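INFO batch 0412 | record 1 of 1 | parsing
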Amino acid sequence: MGLIIRSSAIHAAGCYTTQPIAKGALVVEYTGPRIHKDQADIKYENSFVTYLFGIGDGTTVIDGHGTAMFINHSCNPNCETEEIDGRVWITAIREIAAGEELTYDYNLYDGEEDEAHCNCGARSCRRTMYAPEEIKQRQRIAARKSAARKRKVAKTLEKSERRRSR
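INFO prediction complete | emitting tokens
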């Protein structure tokens, strides 16, 4: 597979194909040391950019090294990831023309307070690299926090009103 790394409009560097890729083809393996998620959290605690890929139940991550780590996120990707026998492969989900940047949907989860802004430019862009399920969970948490803040403000106003009426 002829792949090159060069500047990307999506994010810094991207991975491009130099030849057409057929739908369904295994494009490249996501490689690197496998470490426990907790170890990765410590290792990259103050890092802005990481190339971690969760595998299995998510407690193990691949600390990306190699060509696949340069494949950028898109909300309208031309590839997807597939775990086959404990290995992560990037596969083409449609015909990809020579010269095209390779992308897959990162479907991020467990990113704490990070916004994970998306720069893919797709018409269907979610504006974040988080998975739709993660977005819904974050919205539920934000709604609960907002409701709790409103209750607290209402109680404070109620106490203040009682003091004034005495």
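INFO post-check: DSSP finds two helices and ten strands in the chain.
INFO record closed
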